[in-house]
Specification:
Layout: E1 2-11, E2 14-24, E3 29-33, H1 40-47, E4 55-60, E5 63-64, H2 69-75, E6 76-79, H3 91-102, H4 106-119, H5 135-147, E7 153-157, H6 165-179, E8 183-187, H7 191-197, E9 200-205, E10 208-213, H8 215-222, H9 226-234
């Protein structure tokens, strides 16, 4: 459902992404790992059509990111690391605004909002303004907007950032539940999250892929846990 071929992106003299290629299929949850500055977010922004690559390409659900950006965006639910929430809006108004942007109207709108409110456990803050919410609830509202159109592909950048242990467990259970029907990329610095939800892991460093394997194979090959593997590969 996602196919990435030789993506490259530079910012001035800095090569952020240097020839990255990989595929992700329906039913997979890919853990996308790397230290700060490795190029992970740049890759995800290019796949989601927020950034144009210098060269290479990618497709999502058969749509090319350069030739069919509207169809790509329609196919993706994207939770950015710093999701652009509007602090002065109430949660219900914000989700209705997202429905406007996604062209979800009528009975389908109520069903979509009811579904994501329950999935993301935001019933208790539904009528609060976003500026009054805790970081954890803001993250859950951000997750709700990424799910509202029931996309086939999810790109989640630090989906449990700011959540307490109970909330993390709920979001991880939600990802596991959705995995059978969707193609999901999860970027995270929390390595036990990779073991909890991911069927495969890619580790990037300095703009390039260093490892593309399953968590179990990595631990078997290196004879240690993912934290130590991460330090070995990226240190």
């Amino acid at each position: 459902m996602i196919s990435i071929k030789e993506l490259r992106k530079s910012f001035g003299p800095v090569v952020a992404v240097d020839g990255v290629s990989f595929d992700v299929e329906k039913g997979e949850v890919l853990g996308f790992l790397g230290p700060n500055g490795a190029g992970k977010s740049t890759v995800m922004k290019m796949v989601a059509c927020f950034l144009k690559p210098d060269s290479g390409g990618a497709s999502v659900c058969g749509y090319d990111i350069l030739e069919n950006p509207v169809e790509v965006r329609q196919s993706i639910g994207y939770l950015a690391e710093n999701v652009p929430l509007y602090n002065e809006m109430a949660v219900d108004d914000f989700l209705n605004f997202i429905c406007d942007a996604r062209q979800i109207f009528g009975k389908g709108r109520k069903q979509a909002i009811d579904r994501v409110v329950t999935m993301c456990s935001i019933e208790s803050v539904f009528h609060q303004t976003i500026e009054t919410l805790s970081k954890g609830y803001k993250r859950r509202v951000g997750l709700a907007q990424s799910l509202i159109h029931d996309p086939k592909v999810l790109i989640l950048d630090e989906p449990t950032d700011g959540l307490d242990p109970n909330q993390k467990h709920e979001v991880r259970a939600l990802i596991n539940d959705m995995a059978k029907d969707k193609c999901i990329i999860v970027s995270t610095h929390i390595l036990d999250e990779v073991e909890a939800v991911c069927s495969r892991a890619i580790i990037m460093s300095k703009g390039s892929i260093q490892v593309n394997s399953t968590p179990d194979k990595l631990k078997e090959e290196h004879k240690c846990g993912l934290d130590e593997i991460f330090r070995k590969i990226t240190g």
